[in-house]
Amino acid sequence: MLKKLTASVLKAVLLLVTVSIVTFSMVEISPIDAVESYVGEAAVTAEQRAQIEVYWGLDEPPPVRYVKWAANLLRGDMGVSMIYRKPVIDVIAERFQLSLVLMAASWILSGVIGLLLGILMAVYRGSVADKLIRVYCLALESSPAFWIGMLLLLLFSVKLHLLPMGLASPVGVPVAEAALSDRVRHLILPALTLGLTGVSKITLQTGEKMRQVLDSDYAMFARARGESVWRIVFRHGLRNIMLPFITLQLGSVSELFGGSVLAETVFTYPGLGNATVQSALKGDIPLFLGITMFSALFVFGGNLLANILYTVADPRIREEGKK
Amino acid sequence: MNRRIRTITIICLALILIASLTLAGSLMDPEAYAPVFSEKNLGPSATHLFGTDWMGRDMFMRTVKGLSVSIFIGLLASVFSSVMALFLGTFAGIFGGKVSAAFNWVVDLFMGIPHLILLILISILLGKGAKGVAVGVIVTHWCSLGRIVQAEILSLRESHFVHASYRFGHSRVWVALHHVLPHVIPQFIIGMVLMFPHAIMHEASITFLGFGLPAEQPAIGIILSESMKYLTTGMWWLAVYPGVALLLVVVMFEALGSNLRMLLDPYNAQM
């Protein structure tokens, strides 16, 4: 088991290195001009331009710059963000805190709702509830995340005035100083948006798996012994759907990250997703590279965690190591 | 009406609807969604089904036009992407071993970066615009279908009928054409159709974020991102109707895909 984990960590490290090379080269050949996005509207002479290039080391060939960037990256130095005028690592750390809260909330939300709906679908198979849930999942799956966010915004903020339109804290109050209740109020809609988009996949998969369990011979035997459906669900079903559930939920980390970009854009939530869009639109190369690397690390972290949990949760794999 | 006829009917209906929508949009006279400043900000009514926007443009016409643009890009992307998946997957499946490992490595690499970030990356690499979206959607969607094709071919290679066919003295090409292709083609067609919903939604998302199609193009992502600015003024129809229309198109493609699967691949469809 330990050997397997080491192998997957090694693979992840190798993949991360490749990701860093690929993204660096892609940004390198993109038409983004670092100096131009730095000086912005200000007019510079060719001389000043050359000076800036030398100052930043842009006169060196790309491979040399890559090695320098990667070496600094390993030391946790990702350069300075051009739009926020702060070290990239600080921008990421600060914004990731907000995004993490958002992602965690919606992750739990989609997990709980998806599991519940999936079980309901399997238990009341063929009923109106089953069909309604199916239609609901199909609709969720067929609509882009940002549109769901817009609908929620329309309903709860514009029409009902129940929840704030956006941001992570009341206007003029820094997030760190905002009251907890205010922060929660600002979190609800983005988290709901992100959570709802994850629900359909979980629901359909766990529903399918639970159906297989309820159709199995052991479930039939349990029923013949007089156990109720719900008892079978709790005693046999949950254990059997746990593995695919874990894989699916942790495997959704990549979509969660992408979804957070959309949800944060709709609700102008000042998290990492927002910074991603800003950095890419305004040509803030250091920040964008940093975020890309960070997101890849985040996804690999999710996959690794899935692997570990898998070995813990599955007795067949767990016992294998003891032999 | 038996199951088979029902399936075929649904497929035909979906095809007709999608085709007529695309045709209507591409043949539409630009006058139909031109600004009419005397009819600004109207809610939905009989003359303007989806209402009008802040420039007095008819939202129904804009939505149809936008959907046809999006369907076109989505189709283009899913065709190219699935052909890519077919080639790479077949290549990896036929050679197996190291080639297959390299293939899996590339797929892992693509899946290691969040999809949306990858799309943004490709979009800025190509200087935004329509080309960036199209290329981005094409090169990021082949992974899962490619894996399916590869797995299919790897397992076919070891199947009894393929071995038997070799024993009969048939060449590799003959076996590929007669025994492998018939198994892969249905998967390929289904995969291509089911890729479309992803392609069109990613296209809309990336356009919504400002990396995709240019603002003057009436694409569905542009329409929705513009409507964002007018949500607070209570012009809900700008966001709701185009979104519902997009949803219906995606549902139609999903119906098309799953019904095709029932017809072409009945064994796997009855899970």
How many strands, which pairing sense, and closed or not: the largest β-sheet of chain A?
A: none
Give the % helix of chain B: over 70%
CATH class of chain B: Mainly Alpha
Give unreliable regions of chain A as ranges: none
Radius of gyration of chain B: 22 Å
CATH superfamily of chain B: MetI-like
Count of alpha/pi helices of chain B:
11
Distance between the termini of chain B: 23 Å
Return the string of H and E elements of chain B. HHHHHHHHHHH
> Which CATH-level-2 architecture of the largest domain in chain A?
Orthogonal Bundle
The total beta strand count of chain A reads 0
| Multimerization state | heterodimer
- Classify the helix fraction of chain A into a percent range: over 70%
> Are there runs of chain B of 5+ residues with pLDDT below 50, and where?
none
Please give the number of β-strands of chain B.
0
Q: Quote the CATH topology of the largest domain in chain A.
A: MetI-like fold
Helix and strand topology:
The complex is a heterodimer of chains A (323) and B (271).
Chain A: H1 2-29, H2 34-39, H3 46-56, H4 62-74, H5 88-123, H6 128-141, H7 145-159, H8 180-215, H9 217-224, H10 229-251, H11 253-266, H12 272-281, H13 285-313, H14 315-320
Chain B: H1 3-26, H2 59-95, H3 97-112, H4 115-125, H5 129-140, H6 142-157, H7 160-167, H8 172-208, H9 220-228, H10 237-264, H11 266-269
